[in-house]
Amino acid sequence: MTLDNLYVLNAILYVAEQGCQWRGLPKRFGTWHTIYTRMNRWAKSGVLDRVFAQLQHTQILRVKLEAVALDSTIVTVHPDGTGALKKTARKPLVGPAADGRPRFIWLPRMLERL
After folding, report:
1. How far apart are CA 16 and CA 10, in angstroms?
2. Fewest C-beta atoms under 10 Å: which of 51, 98, 102, 107?
3. Mean pLDDT throughout 99-112?
4. Do residues 22 and 35 make contact, with C-beta atoms less than 8 angstroms apart?
5. What is the mean pLDDT of residues 34-51?
6. pLDDT, position 11
7. 20 touches 44 (CB < 8 A)
8. What gap in Å lies between CA 12 and CA 15, rounded to an integer?
9. 3-state DSSP assignment of residue 4
């Protein structure tokens, strides 16, 4: 099934307006993956820019594009995410579990029925 370009454009506008993920796109627009693939091709080829420019020029749609820059002065990173080297030296295992046997046995139990 091929989708009409108007359905694809409406789906793109829905995702932009609602802020939902592509997978959250309602079924009435068609398969989310098809919509995303076409939007991606349009964006790479410049079609999407021309469509939005024409929609704004004819005053059918008002779109305000904003760019947001995030850097380390705004967002702090957890120490694990800083790229620091991990400890690689391992201590030799000592004890009964050193030979690979489990240290404990987990036995699920049924709760008593009332």
Report:
1. 10
2. 107
3. 52
4. yes
5. 91
6. 92
7. no
8. 5
9. coil
